[in-house]
Amino acid sequence: MNEKNINLSFEHMFSEMKEKYDYPIKGAKMTIQQNKALKVRNSVKVPLAKDRSANFVTFYGVEDQKDHVVLDFRKEKQNQEIIDVRIHSECLTGDIFGSSRCDCGEQLQEAIKKFDEVGGVLIYLRQEGRGIGLYNKLDAYALQLKGLDTYEANRHLGLGDDLRDYKIAAEMLKAMNIKKIRLLSNNPLKSSQLQEEGIEIVEKVSTGVFLKKENTHYLEAKVNHTKHSIDLAKYFAEAL
Questions:
Q1: What's this model's pTM, rounded to 2 decimal places?
Q2: pLDDT in tens, 80-118
Q3: Of 64, 164, 165, 231, which residue is the catalytic one?
Q4: 162 catalytic per annotation
Q5: Which residues span the domain enclosing 6?
């Protein structure tokens, strides 16, 4: 068999595997998935704490091949034209272990409680530590104990202020046929990236302010460096 026929045979094999499993083959000539629209892979109802439940939605065609997931709390009688949406980036320390260094765990629980009551879609992105990963985040924590803020610590490690990419969230919404949203967020980067990707934001709703002694400098840094819409002055007196 000559080289041309070998290449054609490999391409045919990869094409068949792609068609059968709808999954990208790493390193192959035919890793076709990256520029194609996402497709819903599955939607599974999962019972949650406090007698809640949500449909966990997964996807084919995720370019970074991370297990991003949607928790769909929508109700049957809910207005399906404008959907309440929260995009939450993974934070192991806050979401799972209740770290007081950030406000991530409280924001996650706030969204779950709200959407369980009124309906909505929670997009959970696997972008730990603003995209730098868990180990780098813990290295940054060590630097913060020496006086650097969360963004200065990233730079000291040679990393960007915020490496998250919300394009994937827009693609997930489109795969679920959601084009108009009410966004629950304090982060201007989320809204700007979603709009650039064609998602219409009809309203922005700020999250709660979860101020603690341990996360004061973190929240101040978010306001000062990345213009998060958190009215800290209002909360200082009663929280500290």
A1: 0.81
A2: 789 999 999 999 999 999 999 999 999 999 999 999 999
A3: 164
A4: yes
A5: 1-35
